[in-house]
Amino acid sequence: MDQHQAAPVDAETRARRQAFYDKIAPRSLAPLWEVLRGLVPPEPKPKMAAHLWRWAEVRACMAEAGALLTAEEAERRVLVLENPAFPGQSRATGTLYAGVQMVLPGEVAPAHRHTQSALRFVLEGDGAYTNVNGERTRMRPGDFVTTPSWAWHDHVNETDGPMLWLDVLDVPIVAFLEGAFSEHHNADRQSVSRPEGDALARWGSGLLPIDAKSPYGLTSPIFNYPYDRTREALLALAKAGPADPHWGHTLRYANPIDGGWAMPTMAPWMTHLPAGFTTAPVRSTDGIIVTAIEGTGSFEVGGRRTAFGPKDVFVMPNWTWRTLTADSDCTLFMVSDRVVQEKLGLWRDERRAA
Ligand code: 1HN
Fold this sequence. Notes:
Elements: H1 11-24, H2 36-39, E1 51-53, H3 55-68, H4 71-74, E2 78-80, E3 97-103, E4 108-114, E5 118-124, E6 129-132, E7 135-138, E8 144-147, E9 153-156, E10 163-169, H5 171-176, E11 182-184, H6 198-203, E12 224-225, H7 227-240, E13 249-252, E14 267-273, E15 282-284, E16 288-294, E17 297-301, E18 304-308, E19 313-316, E20 322-326, E21 330-336, H8 338-343, E22 349-351
Antiparallel strand pairs: 1-19, 2-3, 3-10, 4-9, 4-11, 5-8, 5-10, 6-7, 6-9, 8-12, 13-14, 14-21, 15-22, 16-19, 16-21, 17-18, 17-20
The chain binds 1-hydroxynaphthalene-2-carboxylic acid.
1-hydroxynaphthalene-2-carboxylic acid binds next to strand 3, strand 4 and strand 10.
């Protein structure tokens, strides 16, 4: 496309213009022509960095944090995954927050709610509960659990081992819109008012209540998508036919009511790549958070390859060519802001032949 080129200007003209800018600045006015190019760049210039957090390192730091303070003291004992391009900003990608949370045996992360939506992807431990608006669900590795905007939630570990998961929240998006509200519950643990499994029975079997209305507004009424079901579906796909060259075997977590993404601000999906498979290059306008629940492999972005193993968390920047390679059979959980971009008509991707 054409690049509009301004004619060069002499020093005197530049000085006269600068004097004008200085004059209007106190009136809270500024010349668009000096900044226009930066406001409407020809294509996105990604600000986030590609990065990988090794599970062994995160886990060791988490163990130290566990000895420093209780979950109750911390409210949430979480190590934030800070993108190196945004130190101190609690952002893993340009638009999403991510962290690793640990709840030790006997601990309770007390009940609260906030307008930010959260999702959990379970990494270690088996059987601690998260309670969401009066229903509890047991968490197992690979489960994808939602905490809808403004839903009460607390986490309780009555097992005898630590429970760890990846948290992803739309914190930066809500902050940009200045839509943050939060409050504490008057009890640490909210009371349970529905039997465990109720949501999955009602909404998660290819059936819907006759008057289907989500109790969670724009978020899927299924708040735990168990890994055993997701895995079974992906392995059936893998058996039935070839992988998509760019996406491998991929299924997205859907809201059964309208078939859209499971959450209004975060788009989660799961990819299975058979051993030896490399995806063809893709770039898309969303920065992506990834964790491998099973398998080892590598990702390449901007010409740099990084190896990953189980439970490592990595981020792949927006609008940067990327490929994924599986050394062993891989199951990868991924999440981005794609759903927001799609609603705004902004999401794009480009694909190259392998
Ligand atoms: C939060 O409420 C949780 O409920 C975890 O487990 C991480 C990060 C920022 C803001 C709220 C949780 C969070 C969070």
